[in-house]
Write a structure and sequence with these properties.
six-stranded antiparallel sheet, GMP Synthetase, Chain A, domain 3, 586 residues
Length: 586
């Protein structure tokens, strides 16, 4: 078939609004997805942003004031204007969204960078984006100054976010000082008239697990339309069910533990939640037990998480039981697949919550599929249904188009798709094809338009001619009682071509048992291999063995950095025979 798509339609979206004009300036009566009776019947005095550490609350009036003040100073002191890039090198901060919207008010472009970058990595992003200014978290200031010097950027082009009562680093202007300076002056800027479909808002760098990271060119319209797609899918502000059964209700509280520099945190956790009139508790740095404490303290109802955080919720019941998490009504996970087994564990841990997966990419800005609004539970292992306005294709290895339940590469067309890779025509032509995005993910789509993402195409193993998805085996391994985390890679084998090798992180008790003796460690390895053998066909068994590691390397979005462990497996093979190899079964 030519394309899969839903029958749901989207409202007409204006093309002339910037992100702050749409999210901050439109009143309830003007909003595109709204039920006036439902909205006006609620006391909407909840704050927009809440600072996790201090409890400080910020409403729309203060947001607009601080955004104006910062924009005024960015114009007068730094001459930031149309298409100038400002790089945000910071963990989540209460002023992070203020900085975004201030830059956008001036027609500038925001590029978020991982604050854990080394100076060379940051320098690369400064150079690719041609950033004119850096706004940095104090903890990352040393790296920022080093990268700025290497880039030939004057250090007075660095602004620093404020951290509580601590003194700001000497010689650097703080964001709050810039806000005060701007508020003390008359308006010195006018907001440009834009075509939101082509005017860049963000340069969001892709994960970069292969090759150098690429700057994804995201226009204002993409962020706006993806929030609207989510709102239509979830029936935001509609009286589709009794109040207590609605998934999103104005006055709810969400937590922002996802980094705003990542597309999932930026579009869905920040902009979509605020559009839905849900207060957002801004968490500077993720810590599992601190997150549980914040859920209890602020009565958090909505969690947007990534699989490593989901695994922590499932694998640490003793820690979870210390906190009152009864307020949680919605849990969504995305950015990487959650296995069938993990999903079932999460359902048992939060029996009353709406729980499911979403799927998207930086290149599609952001979500393409979300678990159905019709059911409290997403289908275990499923990535959700196609959202309104999105078309999908399954392209088989021979180039033909797949129909229902056929497997191939998933291609996505969405009005939220990015424009391409910034100043990288070759990479753009490889991924963005006539409006479609090649995802690089192997998937199938069933007759209910549920999308099943099987694995990255390049990560599929060929064992004795059979295709084996590492994610399937990882899900099975994670259901073993001794295991906290796992990653499976293929290693060369003369007989089978490739065989699966599992890198495993044991839980605390099992790790202590394994440290007592090599015999006990071998018993645990054999137990994990038997667990897989008992649940999977013969060619999916862990013939490559089991290796214990202290942690699984992941990128900030939670994707497994499988390449690093594949390299480690290669080194293991050179240094000694892999342990506990299972005999080949004919």
């Amino acid at each position: 078939m030519s394309a899969f798509q839903t029958k749901e339609t989207l409202p007409e979206i204006p093309h002339n609004l910037s992100i702050p004009q749409f999210f901050l300036d439109l009143k309830n009566s003007e909003r595109l997805v709204t039920d006036n009776h439902a909205v006006h019947g609620i006391e909407l005095r909840n704050p927009w942003l809440i600072e996790d550490k201090t409890g400080r609350q910020i409403g729309l009036d203060e947001i607009n004031s601080r955004t104006f003040g910062l924009a005024n100073t960015l114009k007068t002191r730094y001459d930031i204007g149309v298409d100038d890039v400002v790089l945000l090198f910071s963990r989540n901060h209460i002023d992070y969204p203020i900085a975004i919207w201030a830059v956008h008010r001036l027609g500038g472009i925001v590029s978020g960078a991982n604050p854990d970058f080394q100076a060379g990595e940051l320098l690369y992003q400064i150079q690719i984006s041609k950033a004119k200014l850096i706004i940095v978290h104090p903890e990352a200031l040393e790296t920022a100054t080093s990268a700025a010097r290497s880039a030939g950027m004057p250090l007075d082009r660095i602004l620093v976010f404020d951290i509580g009562s601590k003194r700001n680093p000497q010689g650097f202007r703080s964001v709050s000082a810039a806000v005060r300076e701007g508020l003390a002056q008359p308006r010195q800027f006018s907001e440009p008239v834009i075509d939101a479909r082509t005017k860049l808002a963000f340069l969001s760098f892709s994960s970069g697990t292969t090759g150098k990271p690429k700057g994804v060119a995201i226009p204002h319209y993409s962020v706006i339309i993806n929030a609207i797609q989510m709102a239509v899918h979830h029936k935001i502000f509609q009286e589709y069910a009794p109040w207590h059964e609605r998934r999103f209700r104005p006055g709810d509280v969400a937590i922002a533990v996802l980094p705003f520099y990542h597309i999932y945190g930026l579009v869905l956790n920040l902009h979509f939640m605020l559009y839905s009139r849900i207060s957002l508790v801004v968490v500077e740095r993720f810590n599992f037990e601190d997150m549980l404490r914040s859920i209890s303290q602020y009565h958090i109802s909505h969690l947007m998480l990534v699989p490593p955080q989901i695994i922590l919720l499932c694998k640490n019941p003793d820690v979870v039981r210390r906190y009152n998490l009864s307020s949680v009504r919605f849990i969504m996970t995305a950015a990487a697949p959650v296995t069938n087994e993990t999903a079932e564990e999460l359902f048992r841990a939060f029996p009353e919550a709406h729980i499911g997966q979403a799927y998207g990419m930086t290149e599609t800005c952001t979500a393409c599929t979300v678990f159905s609004i019709e059911n409290r539970r997403g289908i275990p292992g499923g990535a959700g249904k196609l959202m309104p306005g999105i078309r999908a294709r399954i392209v088989k290895p021979d180039g033909s188009l797949g129909t229902y339940d056929e497997v191939g590469e998933l291609w996505i067309w969405s009005p939220s798709n990015a424009l391409g890779y910034y100043n990288n025509e070759k990479a753009t032509k490889e991924t963005f094809i006539h409006g479609w995005v090649r995802t690089g993910d192997e998937a199938r789509i069933d007759r209910n338009l549920e999308v099943w993402v099987l694995d990255r195409i390049k990560e599929i193993m060929k064992v004795r001619g059979f295709q084996v998805a590492p994610a399937e085996l990882e899900g099975c391994i994670l259901s073993h009682p001794d295991v906290n985390d796992a990653c499976v890679v293929g290693i060369p084998d003369d007989y089978s071509g490739e065989v699966p090798l599992a890198f495993v992180v044991l839980n605390e008790l099992a790790a202590k048992r394994g440290q007592r003796s090599e015999a006990e460690a071998t018993n645990i390895r054999c137990s994990i291999q038997k667990h897989v053998a008992d649940n999977k066909v013969y060619y999916k068994q862990l013939s490559g063995g089991v290796e214990f590691v202290p942690s699984i390397p992941k990128n900030p979005s939670g994707k497994l950095l499988r390449r690093l462990l594949r390299d480690q497996a290669r080194n293991l093979g050179r240094s000694r025979p892999l342990r506990t190899r299972a005999s080949a079964k004919l």
